[in-house]
TrEMBL record:
InterPro entries per the UniProt record, alphabetical: Cro/C1-type_HTH (IPR001387), Lambda_DNA-bd_dom_sf (IPR010982), LexA-like (IPR039418), LexA/Signal_pep-like_sf (IPR036286), LexA_repressor (IPR050077), Peptidase_S24_S26A/B/C (IPR015927)
The HTH cro/C1-type domain, residue ranges: 8-63
Pfam families reported in the protein's UniProt record: HTH_3 (PF01381), Peptidase_S24 (PF00717)
Name this polypeptide is given: XRE family transcriptional regulator
Species in which this protein is naturally found: Dorea formicigenerans
């Protein structure tokens, strides 16, 4: 996690922000907290990493140095805007959906890896990790690995955000909230209902 704190400092300097400026934007009383964070003295929860990324106009993954990526000039290129939908419906291509409620920017290097859209989450089935009103950034694809978070269309209904679990001859779409029962589908049900994966969640964005 040490790379995270180095990248926060590096990005702050790139933006010509003082520690006091960043503290103010993050809601801290003074710069002492930022100084401690940049030294790696304080561990940041995921929610704070997302908040820092938002204030520093970058992606959480870049701040965390995923895949060895640190914040450098090449990763600070202008973002690409994607549409945020209030819902995605079965049988309607994304391009034809009129329920566009917002736009978000994703890093250009991420945009180059595929096609992306955003979905505003409704409900509490993915609590405690994903809250009602959160926005998930989704890479369009028709399959995913077991245990990845996906957007799926089931039986002609609107898209749902669930954890995918694959078995030898079936799949399950699982809510993170234990109050919701998993949805199991045999291979026959996957084809008949149908059950279609339309994307994999690659990032969570939350307003504070």
């Amino acid at each position: 996690m040490l790379q995270l704190y180095k990248n926060i400092k590096s990005r702050r300097i790139e933006l010509n922000m003082t520690q006091s400026d960043l503290a103010s934007k993050m809601g801290y009383a003074d710069k002492s907290m930022i100084a401690k964070i940049e030294k790696g003295v304080i561990d940041l929860p995921q929610s704070k990493i997302i908040a820092f990324a938002k204030v520093l106009n970058t992606a959480p993954g870049i701040l965390m140095g995923l895949d060895g990526t640190s914040v450098d000039q090449s990763s600070l290129s202008e973002g690409i805007k994607i549409k945020i939908y209030g819902r995605v419906a079965a049988g309607i291509p994304l391009e034809a959906i009129e329920d566009v409620i917002d736009e978000e920017e994703i890093p250009e290097e991420l945009a180059r890896t595929g096609e992306f859209f955003g979905l505003r989450i409704s409900g509490d089935s993915m609590e405690p990790d994903i809250h009602n009103g959160d926005t998930v950034i989704v890479k369009r694809q028709n399959d995913a690995e077991s245990d990845e978070i996906v957007i799926a269309l089931v039986n002609g209904n609107d898209g749902v955000c669930k954890r995918l679990k694959k078995y030898a001859d079936s799949i399950a779409l699982i809510s993170l909230n234990p109050n919701y029962e998993p949805m199991y589908f045999s291979q026959e049900e996957i084809e008949e209902k149908p059950v279609k994966i339309i994307g994999k969640v690659v990032e969570l964005r939350r307003k504070f």
